[in-house]
Amino acid sequence: MKTNVGSMDRIIRIVVGLALIGLTLTGNIGVWGWLGVVALATGAIGWCPPYAILGINTCKTN
């Protein structure tokens, strides 16, 4: 697995993931908020399967 998620993209994914999970745990949004786990995981790992399929790479490494 090659890293295909850049640093700013990773930060955004982690923040959004944590926010969605937090909103779900407090009951502000429904079960769809658990999709934040996916955003959190892809941000933490640095690899996104849809990016790999579509050939998108936001990582600045050569």
Overall geometric form: elongated
List how many beta strands DSSP finds.
0
Rg over CA atoms, rounded to whole Å, is 13 Å
User: pLDDT below 50 for ≥5 consecutive residues: which ranges?
Assistant: none
**Helical residues, percent:** 55-70%
**Structural domain count:** 1
Task: Tell me what portion of residues adopts beta-strand conformation.
Answer: under 5%
Q: What about the largest sheet?
A: none
Describe the structure.
The protein is mainly alpha-helical and 62 residues long. It has one domain (7-54). 56% of the residues lie in helices and 0% in strands. It has three helices and no strands. α1 (7-25) runs antiparallel to α2 (36-45). The protein is elongated, with a radius of gyration of 13 Å. It starts with 6 loop residues before the first helix and ends in an 8-residue tail after the last helix.
Quick take:
By secondary structure, this protein is mostly helical. Helix content is 56%, strand content 0%.
Quick tags:
62 residues, 3 helices
SSE inventory with pairings:
Elements: H1 7-25, H2 36-45, H3 49-54
Helix pairs in contact: 1-2
